[in-house]
Amino acid sequence: MEFGPHLLLAVLEGAVTAAVLSLTAVGLSLVFGVMRVVNIAHGEFFMLGAVFAWLMAQWVPGSAALGFFAALVIAPLLVGGLAALADLTILKRIEYDPERTIVATIGLLYIIQQVTLMTYGPDARAVEAPFNQRLALPWVEWGETGLEFYYPWGLSITTYKLAVIGAAGVILMGVWLMMTRTRLGLVMRATQADREMATAFGIPVERVYAVVFGLGAGLAALAAVLIVPIQQAHYLMGADPLLLSFIVVIIGGLGSLPGTILAAAFIGISDGIISVFFSPTLAKILATLLVGLVLVFRPQGLFGTRPA
Amino acid sequence: MAKSEITRRGALQGLAGATTIPLWARYAQAQSSEPLKLGFQVHRTGIGSAYGRWYDRTTQAAVKLINEGGGINGRPVEIIAEDDGTDPKRGAEVLEKFANQHGCDLGFGTLFSHVVIGSAPRAGELKLPYFVVSEGHHVASGMLNRYTLQPGITDVKSQVIAMAPFVADNLGKKVTMIFPDFAFGHNHLDFFTESIEAQGVEVLEKIAIPPAETSFTKYFPRIPRDTEVVYHVMVGPAVLTFVKELGEFFGPSSPEIFGFIDSLEAVDLASPGLEFLEGTYFWEGMPRYAQADQSEHDTFYRAAVGVDDNGASLSDPADVSTYAHMFGCWETLYIIKDAMEASGYQGPADRPALIEAVEAMTEIPESREHPQGDKLFNGKTHQVFGHQFISKVEDGRMVKLHTTSIEDGLYEDEVDYTAQSF
Amino acid sequence: MSDTARVLSLHLGLIGVLFALHFVLPAYHHGNLARIMVLASYAIGYNILFGYTGLLSLGHALFFAAGMYGMALPIQHLDMNALPALALGLVAGFAVSAGLALLALRTTGVAFMIVTLMFAQAGFLTILYFGDYTRGDEGFVIQQAQRIVAGIDFSNETARYLAAWALFSISLLVCLWVVRHPFGKTLIAIRENEERVRMLGYNTHRLKLGAMILSGVISAAAGAAYGFLFGYAGATFASVQYSILPLLWVLLGGAGTVVGPFVGAVFMFYLIDLSSGLTTAHMLLAGIALVLLTLFAPQGLTGEVRRRYWKTLP
Questions:
Q1: Among A267, B61, B217, C246, whose CB has the most other CB atoms within 10 angstroms?
Q2: What residues in C contact B144, CB-CB < 8 Å?
Q3: Domains of chain B with CATH codes
Q4: pTM as predicted
């Protein structure tokens, strides 16, 4: 494929990745930012969202679309509830100590993975998209009569992928509105800014934490429901999102939601663009090193408000 | 050297003849009715777990039949299964457990190559016969040791070179290869490139996909426009995405597609998004769907393991089996039985004799014990050779088009394990 | 008994017990313990950076793999003898840890975590990229004939156990010596409050550099030993899983204690081994055990002992 169309395709694919990544990473950013803990099980909540989406598709009779939209609503609620429960029973008891939380969430990771393996099983299963139409995309070239459109071979996107990009944008807007315009958002930001002060003002910090933890997990699950018709549900699928969302949160800068979103966009799209120029594995090596070097020379991340 | 081989073979064949004595006499001859313990190294968790489940079911089915038939040398067979987590470190630890704690006579059953290679050194040191069901070329390459054998399933080199004539004759003369950028993929790259170029076919582009990749569309622009055949061996959970996106990329105008069923083991062909596979070709190790010329051995085997004519579990049609690989466990267990009977195996002191009995095997006819087809075992390289199948997806089922001959998959010996000492 | 005498008798006692066990352990546990001792050495290396200096790295698999491949590749491709190859493994570990330290120590806290993680991931992918030499994830075997030093065949159980024991003893004693002397005590001070240490006039950057290199070299020694003693080098050992394992062992056994890493390694090994004998869902049991442990024994097993009974245990 010629360079121009190839680049466009890479950018579009990168945008889909970035969309889902930004949702997952925002979930993690909230937990990281407000609670200051590292949740190693974040990827497993993502995986649970995908698995629940598959379950809904099986149980909800009627068209695939119905099952999908049911999953879109129910899966984040279920997963968020589960996470809040984990927070109240485990994380609260260990007083959100950073190191103990790491061990506890590693334990949680093993538990969730194994239970999923025992119930859902080891197979990867597909979920049908509610709608999925291939759209051939045009590109320009200089013809006899000036700029002309033509349809390069292979340059296409699907309606569903475009919808994912749109949906992620809408959801992120919703999260931003919640954070800045609602009382819950205010309480969360207050707790993030200064936990002791917040307690002094009568904010039930521990209940806020449970909500935040649940919200973070719910966003990851939502991202997974969106991506699962493009990918598939598999019990080990949480590892990659965990890694990537951590990178995104740190690069974007702790405490900065816009930073997280921009970092997700940057990483998602650059991953696609670099693959245009370099062989895939080399591209991945370069992308990984790039992330590391950004942090080396700018430890607070791109938009961080304080050193990480 | 040849002379002593013939003498050994002759002696063992004589012994084999001696085992056709009546059942009562066999039990009376058994020095001990202590069970024979076979250590089953199974991928219960980890990336290989989908295969591990079916390897387990096939193993249990075969052992049940063997025990109903009187066991081996009059002794019942006991399977001791341990999860290796599809991890090479754990795999080696599990073999130690088999040898030193459980007192197993041998170890068997591993699929993933890196686990085999990580465990085999330990098997050699422990002097534990290690029968792998891996498809990897590692055994025949000479990397391993005399205690490691693969008599129940063919290796990837053999599979790949057997495909080349069909692809060259029927599909096209310009190939683009898409493969995962790790050892399994590189095996396909190296072996297929060599054999397809020998058929006069040009390999236009080789696209290596990084491991654990979850979206593939961005790699497809590298496929040259004039590709006639896309050859792919993507494996892992992301294969469904791969096929979907390949279909979406090509749209209505796609070249011929040739894949390996490894991509779709345990996956239902009717899964959403796989419609693109209609009309594409696959290598199959053993045809998943019962064909018009299905042998009685295949019918029996399916019933025993519990799969239907679509290769799915009898109790759950959505639970698709790893049909192209799991027969390896069944056939390996019967090879173990034959070798133990031929060598008069009684206990760990007879392990070298057991291995020599396997090394002496040559032609293995198709039978209930070997339902995948007849085979040829190479005692020097410890690797078995057999038929490969090429199928086409028609109306959502795979229809067998072509069966390769054993000769199609043969290659020069790369090692002679029989020259190594025990 | 003076405190020093108590400390020495504990640590030397542990080394002595492990030596004695060589003669009495049944074959299975003998083999397990050899493995555990090498992995515990890795954990000791990790503990120096994490438990004592307070820097949480998620990329130590890079050092482990550097040692493993630094030893294995010359044997495989250059037909090098075992002893120089092992030395090369150490050199590789030194080079990689020094290189990474110079870059990563510009950051702290979670940024440090991610930087180390990223470089370890890049290392893993590089091993795969050069698959022609490294055979990537499949890995390659180091044949029995190549694992002979001075006439001793290290594929033999006795030689293997004693070699693992030697590595572990050296690592343990080095760690003990470091933490009881100024260098180590300054590291602990840095962990507690780096600003204050800097204000006292110490060059904390140089100290952290030293800690990371020491940590990396010990981890690389463990990696080289593991590949050498067990005859296999593969990219699995460079994956992120092998960066999380030492963290787990150290946290479970007791971060910031000298014997903690060993305790953690033994505990995790037998937790998985015993539970896989009971049920196929052994990871579930391991997960539950981790959660319970962190709920009720937050300082790790040895850390709890220190907290309750022996306040000055190093």
A1: C246
A2: 141
A3: 2-154+323-386 (3.40.50.2300), 156-284+387-415 (3.40.50.2300)
A4: 0.86
